[in-house]
Amino acid sequence: MTAITDLIDLERYPLDDADLISRTNAQLNDDGCLVLKGFIRPEKMAALVAEAEASAAFGHRNFNRTNAYFTKDDPTLPKTHPLRRFYDRSNSFVPADNFGPDSLLRQIYELPAFTSFIKQALGENIFYRYADPLADVVVNAAETGGGFPWHFDTNNYTVTLAIQNAEQGGAFEYAPGLRTSNDENYDGVEAVLDERSDKVKTIDLEPGDLQIFEGRYSLHRATPLQGDRMGLIAIFSFVEYPDMVATSERCRQLYGKVLPIHLERAGMRMDELVDLGEITLRVSRQPRPVCFLR
Predict the structure, then answer these.
(1) Contacts of 22 (CB under 8 A, 6+ apart)
(2) Is residue 177 within 8 Å of residue 285, measured between CB atoms?
(3) Tens-place pLDDT, residues 92-113
């Protein structure tokens, strides 16, 4: 049986090291995006690939058109408005209820040292694992043509682990700090959608890389995949309020089902952003260049 602490390259990334925490915190403050190259030991990746591939059969495949906010069309707005800009989305998400206590991915997510490291790297005092039973630990299993169009996340912090790359495509593109908790900056969003913005940055993640990303305020997408090999990415979600869950609309889109908890907590929120995501504190960061730790 693989020990969780053997999966993570703790010699390269000692999770309780003050210097590592300080450097990651500084880089996240600069850009809202950080990549820890080779976070998982290369010789241990096979076990994670096997788990993710086995789970792919339980993914919810969804083919639809969505805007950057996962909201419905608003015909009262001009057709060029970002809220009315819809794009094809074809992807498959394996919900969190498929990853039980024996899951390696869940054990990484629930490792106290891992949670503590992410919290300190982000420099947050108010910090929780996601309370959503469908979305705290998720695998994105993308096939040829799959990808994810431009969007904002509904939770502030997302931590992703690259498990397997497709043969081509899958680059991560983002425009850091494009909106704040009280300014949607539709002009800036429209510039990105029109491919005339100079704020877009690109990252090519490799298997074993851990990415910490503040996607609530940064518009981002994954480019379409090509080839026979499936792209596999694990998504670990951390939030700023203990009872945060996704909206029922979001759950239906991504996971194909809704649980009672999503209906019970509908309407609970602390910001006024249009996508009506979850309870989110008013926190924003200023963008600077992307950074990598090696």
Answers:
(1) none
(2) yes
(3) 899 999 999 999 999 999 999 9
Residues 6+ apart with CB under 8 A from 71: 83, 249, 274, 275, 276
Q: For residue 8, what is the domain's CATH number?
A: 2.60.120.620
Which amino acid is residue 139, in one-letter code? V
Rounded to the nearest 10 degrees, the angle between the axes of helix 18-31 and helix 112-122 is 50
What range defines the domain where residue 83 resides? 4-293
Look-up of token digits 């924003």: 284
Coil, helix or strand at residue 192: helix
Q: Give the Cα separation of 270 and 282 in Å (integer).
A: 8
Q: Average pLDDT of 280-284?
A: 32
Which ranges constitute the DSSP H helices of the chain? 4-7, 18-31, 45-55, 104-109, 112-122, 186-193, 248-255, 260-264
- For the chain, how many residues are written? 294
The predicted pLDDT at position 268 comes to: 58
Question: What pLDDT is recorded for position 161?
Answer: 98
The amino acid occupying position 123 is G
pTM (2 decimals)?
Answer: 0.83
Q: Which two tokens stand for residue 145?
A: 């043509």
Q: How many independent structural domains does the chain possess? A: 1
